[in-house]
Amino acid sequence: MSFRVRLFVAILLAVLLPLAALALGVRQEMQRRLSAEYAERVTALVTVTEATIQRESAAIDSRLAALASDLGEDNRFRLGLRGDAASRKYLLDYAGHAMRLAGLSYLQLQDSSGKILSSGHFRNEFDSRQPELPAFLRANSGSAGLIKARTPEAPVLALVRMDSLRLGGVAISLIGGVEAEGRLLAAVSPGPDLGVALDYPGAPSRPHNDRVVRRLTLPFLDLVNASGARTDTAALLMTQSPGTLEELLRGVGRWVLVALALTLAAAVIAAAWLSSRISRPLRDLASKTAAIDLDQLDQNFDSDRPDEIGALSRLLGMMTERLRNSAARIREAERRAAVGDLARQINHDIKNGLAPIRNVLRHLGQVSTQDPTALPQIFEARRATLESSVEYLDTLARNYDRLSPGVDRRPCDINAIVQQVVRTASGDATGLRVQLDGRRPQALGDDLMIRRVLENLVGNALDSINGKPDASVTVSTEQLVNGSAANAAVRIVVTDTGAGMTQAELDRVFNDFYTTKPSGSGLGLSIVRRLILDLNGSLRVETAPGVGTRMIVELPALPQGEDLR
Amino acid sequence: MSRGLRPVNDSERLFSRTLFPPLLRLDCEGKIGPGLVESWTPDSAGAWTITLGDPAQFDPDLRISAAAVASNVSPSGGGGVPGIDSAVPLNGRQIRLFTSGNQESVLHALADPALAMPEGLAFESPVSDRLLELPTQPDQPVIQLRLPPIGDPRDALDQGADLIVTHDPSLLEYAAGRPDFVIHQLPWSRTYVVVQPGSAPPLTAETIQLEPQSLAEAVEADARVAHPPFWWLEVSCPARDTSLAPVTSQRIVYLRDDDVARGLAERLVALAVPGNGVRAAGLETSELLVALHEGSELAYIISLPKHAAQPCRELKDFPPGASIRPLIDTRAHAIVRRGAPPLAVDWDGTIRVVRP
């Protein structure tokens, strides 16, 4: 995980965790306060409901008392009560008129036998007998009663009270009330989340979700029951619909989620911006540092930042400066070393070129001393060696003049080069033999470079057998065809039966300036290896101390059919 | 179901009788007199040729043509008159009626007001504004007919109404105290019956303890226990070929505007055994006609005329196999301002304005 991502996550968590805690806290606190508020409202509702019932009961009482007082003065009612036919209709209609005037929704006048003399809510129920109703109300004289009574259209629930009077020797009960489900419940309308409902035998079922929070009981009389009037208990239920509170909490939850989502989005953007801004100088430093190389030490680490990043940048700048200085010193040392190498190589190559000339001159000197007459003949015989060495030196000089000895790839007759080298080297040597492949293998390379390789290898082999009378050096050539024509090669093997090399000597044999010879430069095999590599060839050494050494050179062969000669 | 031009209460009957004079009039003794038909002549083939008088009506749209009368009285017209086999309009005013049976009874049947009403016209259409102004002679005042509701009818009297037909005892009591009005007691003209479809459980003593004597006290009208004869017991009308589903309703229904019917329905509910669920319900005219036709209610409180020119027409909407039980007779009172235009009472007790 990158530093930038870690920074991003850290900022995000730093914003979101406190916010989530705040949201949860707000929700919990709202739930607690709403629940407490509901509890207070329920208590208030109970108080209001009880007060409403008491107030309605008192109002009913006062209206019934007024009606009873007025009835005592009503002669037509009295006549109707005594059976006067002309006042009969007045008697029947009395309760209807009185009920409307008194603002009641239930009024019934009954005699002592329970016969209905006049009914306001059900005018045509006259002469029916309902002795249960006065008895029920007398039994509950201290409180209002709830009754279920008949009307022409449908049963009605009424909160009723009773008053009485005596008229013409007849005891009359005035039973009046208000419609309970409409008027009474509407008077205590508590709002959408709290409800007041009447529960009584045969009441319609309430919604299952509503929770009853308080219950006020009332005596109840069912006058509509098929099996006769029945006394029971009814209740005013204060219910709470959980839906409102839950809806409120859901709403709070929704808004908390919205706030969290918005904050998350803002925090992501801010964290991404901040982490990018904070990590950008580090990324720049990393980028500059990655670009540093010995060839590229020109990175600018200057910074005016006063913080740790500025200090780091300045430190990197100083380090780069030190590297620049060190690189300059290294390049100077390398240059000097290269000049020395070059001088030694030139020295070595010139010695190689001068050695045949020296041999020929020594041979001519011996002939001029011992047999002067043979001098022209010998000179003529060794003249090619002299010319070849001179040409070698001339070419060498041109190459050094160019200072870039490029490989001029041409078909090279390996047998001819071997014969030329052996002829040059065999002037004062014995035991030098040649085994040439009769197919005249041709390599793709540079005659001069191949000759330099072979002169070095043959020279080293001859040096290794110096002092061993039975030792020999063999130079062999071979055309190799391994698989495809592209893999064709020419192998040249220089084998000596000289001293051989130990493993330690073999490990160092290609190092520059390593030599076991008193007058050697230590560059011969190093040059051989570089030349072979330049010719895209390979060099292997097989050696054993006291047995001898095989130097195996393989060069790319001229593709078949491309003999340019 | 549209009730067409069928009047359902006293006010509408007064309206329609004034708007649509019957083809022939019967007086209270059963004597035939001219109505829309000004002459009727028998021929030797047993047919009647009737001649329509001046067809001028209050509204040109309400005129009835000879063709419409022929359609109304012909059996092929959907209604028909018992005894008339066919009716052929001879010209714009004359119709020839081919009869079978008693020719006199055919003329009595022509007193049915429904035969003089154009088909396809709803009752609400000509009186949609509840007010009708009757043109009279140029030098005579305009006669206005107004349907309820008209507010407190006592206010109508105070504001100059010349005639109010009413059942309201308090209005009668008020008018009795006014020397400028005369109260005429009209004949017992309506009989309220309780109708039950054949598929409904009958009202018996176990369900409703019917006390006929107390029913008159249940209504706010001049009422008495129903007196025979009851014409529906003397006729046999073809029943609709319809099978009705068993009645599950416990409602006793009545016309919502009819206070007498309401009082009777409520009294029946009061007399019902508690707990059996019987209840009263007032319906609009069209709802009541649909319910009656379908026979879907427990019982119907219906007002029938004491006399019917065409009994089967009166019963045509009753459900098949319906039982008809008479409850009370009622009569209205006409409160007439002294010096008002002349009035007449038709054979069926309907009052009408006699236009100058």
For the largest sheet of chain B, list the strands in their spatial order: 12-16-11-15-13-14
Low-confidence stretches of chain B: none
Overall geometry of chain A: rod-shaped
DSSP summary: helix tally of chain B: 9
**Average pLDDT score of chain B:** 81
Task: Report the β-strand fraction of chain A as a percent range.
Answer: 15-25%
Largest interface: A-B, 20 and 18 residues
Oligomer: heterodimer
Distance between the termini of chain A: 67 Å
Mean pLDDT of chain A: 84
The percentage of residues in β strands of chain B lies in 25-35%
Cα gyration radius of chain B (Å): 21 Å
Order of helices and strands of chain A: HHHEEHEEEHEEEHHHEHEEHEEHHEE
Order the strands across the largest sheet of chain A as they lie in space.
2-1-5-4-3-7-8-6
User: Count of DSSP E strands of chain B?
Assistant: 19
The helical percent of chain A reads 40-55%
